[in-house]
Amino acid sequence: MTVDSTAARKPRRSSGGKRAAAKKTAAKSAQPDLVQLLTPEGKRVEHPEYSIDPTPDELRGLYRDMVLTRRFDAEATALQRQGELGLWASLLGQEAAQIGSGRATREDDYVFPTYREHGVAWCRGVDPVNLLGMFRGVNHGGWDPNTNNFQLYTIVIGSQALHATGYAMGVTKDGADSAVIAYFGDGASSQGDVAEAFTFSAVYNAPVVFFCQNNQWAISEPTEKQTRVPLYQRAQGFGFPGVRVDGNDVLACLAVTRAALERARRGEGPTLVEAFTYRMGAHTTSDDPTKYRRDEEREAWEAKDPIQRLRAYLESEKLADDTFFTELEDESEKLGKHVREAVRAMPDPDMMAIFENVYADGSALVDEERAQFAAYQASFADGEAK
Ligand SMILES: Cc1ncc(C[n+]2csc(CCOP(=O)(O)OP(=O)(O)O)c2C)c(N)n1
Ligand SMILES: [Mg+2]
What we know:
By secondary structure, the protein is an alpha/beta fold. It contains 15 helices and eight strands. It has helices spanning 3-9, 16-30, 56-81, 95-104, 118-124, 128-136, 145-148, 159-174, 192-203, 234-238, 250-265, 295-302, 306-316, 322-344, 364-378; strands at 34-35, 110-112, 180-185, 208-214, 217-218, 221-222, 242-246, 271-276. Strand 5 and strand 6 form a beta hairpin. Helix 3 packs antiparallel against helix 13, helix 4 (95-104) runs parallel beside helix 11 (250-265) and helix 8 packs parallel to helix 9 (192-203). Bound molecules: thiamine diphosphate (TPP) and magnesium ion.
């Protein structure tokens, strides 16, 4: 007889009190271990490890960042629907995760994004119009990474975690005291690149923060298909701390990321931050989430909207008045109009530009391809079409 089956035959607890206690413990351990500083209703709560005391100006600034980012994102989606962009990956719902973590970075820190980090790009001072150039297909990336220490968007899932780790190892060799942050998603956490990045960053004690936005979906795959344990717990197996933060709480995201970056700067190595959030929109404009997820799920997350909860706090504490909200609305509309006009005015690139910047010193193969393409184009000239 096995120990387990003996245990199974033990009489059940008869005391109602004991049963209730056991239920409570089980319920507690099943709950995600979430760092939260602002409840979904907009109430400030304290956390013993992550205290933060932003000024009213800073709070209004975070709110403004989120509102403008959402407005820009909505304009980009509309532009794609009208044929002005090839594709758009919306950040709707993830504003707090991105603005909180983005505002935690220092100017000399270095950021490695995925393709959805429009809010982080905003915090780094990247011109939003440049983000759209890439999705319109008129440039090779859109911005110089070294101007704002913000790498180009990376579509190859998880690969930037390795780039960030290598960069962070370089920071240590340079003797600099800056830190690096790599963004990726719940789906990316299953990639080998991410596991390799965890291993290297841990053993080389690299000053890198892994910021995983768990938005519950990797296109149509739910997080349950990525992991059997909460994602932040993965870090423990690699030998560095992991923390789960309410990704719809901008204050908690700011505090947790700031602490992780400071830890990295002190030479204490990597941290995994799992921002527990939700992708309220489609994966990209090519996706239709109604095919694989229920409206009720989205509605439940809408009640935890990152912008609404900060607004509720600003209003209840009288930290912002009607003039502030009205002016911000005007500013949002101006931003939408500005990016729309700027995108439409973008000149089409020269057809041959695709062959530029492939290799720094050129390549015989690219030269051959360029010549072939030029000949093909020339074949369409008047009277010469074959
Ligand atoms: C190496 C690689 N495999 C597959 C894809 C196709 N792909 C694009 S986005 C995506 C899902 C990523 O999900 P997640 O990491 O959760 O990020 P999210 O899109 O939710 O922000 C996949 C599989 C890719 N771009 N790169
Ligand atoms: Mg995801």
